Amino acid sequence: MLELKALSKTYKTGDKALSEVSFAIPAGQVVGLIGPSGAGKSTLIRCINRLVEPSSGSVLLGDTDLTRLNGRALRQARRRIGMIFQEYALVERLTVMENVLSGRLGYVSGWRSFLRRYPQDDIDLAFKLLEQVGLGDHFNKRADALSGGQRQRVGIARALEQNPELLLVDEPTASLDPKTSRQIMRLIQSMCRERNLPAIINIHDVMLAQNFTDRIIGLRSGEVVFDGAPDALTDDVLTTIYGDEDWTQLRRDNEDPDPASDPNDVSVVEGL
Ligand SMILES: Nc1ncnc2c1ncn2[C@@H]1O[C@H](COP(=O)(O)OP(=O)(O)OP(=O)(O)O)[C@@H](O)[C@H]1O
Question: Positions of the region Disordered (predicted)?
Fold first, then answer.
């Protein structure tokens, strides 16, 4: 469970990026964080894992207030949070397996990580995760030999290899085509459901957010202006968040072509 209490951030430049943001996310809930450019979405994600220092307020992960931690305690707390990035952040010259195992780096001792030697349990988990994300046959390939969608699946497996209590996902589909984007969102959603893992997904694409999350939080100018079920995201609400736009037309342009008939649908991969 994650709880934000009156979280605010004003940058040194005077930009007020977040203003008293409060919400709680229970176990297993996948939240889509939407809002126009500059609304504060990245700042919010980064304040949670303290890549950006909040100005005030608190971030509770279970019983731990992350805003009060420093040094070693902060590093340990960060292990409890898995991250998935827009540009995948893989080590290109390493294999898929090594990239997934790097999710354990915060856990293994210094010399083991230097030699890149991991406990057998970590290796077994990595194989299992690679099967689940549909890359079981690719474990020995170099990351730079993969497509964008495959890279993001490695990113998902790496985050889950950490056994996180919370998943923070920053624009996971921004570099992917529409069909691959749906597959990746479906995969994140099903992996979270299976593990009862809460997640916040910063996502530009409103239709993807609506189709593949349990709850939507809409930010505008650093404030929460919508917090509710994806179905409650009416055109009026979207206008409140983003301003005027032809939402009916946008929805029509983005309709999902029957996902069940998609032969590359990762949700049919065994184990999901
Ligand atoms: N390092 C920084 N220094 C100063 N101001 C910043 C910094 N990072 C972000 N901001 C400002 O904070 C506000 C929120 O930015 P943020 O990047 O969090 O928004 P966003 O919703 O993630 O936008 P986008 O969708 O374009 O990525 C903006 O006004 C931005 O200019």
Answer: 250-272
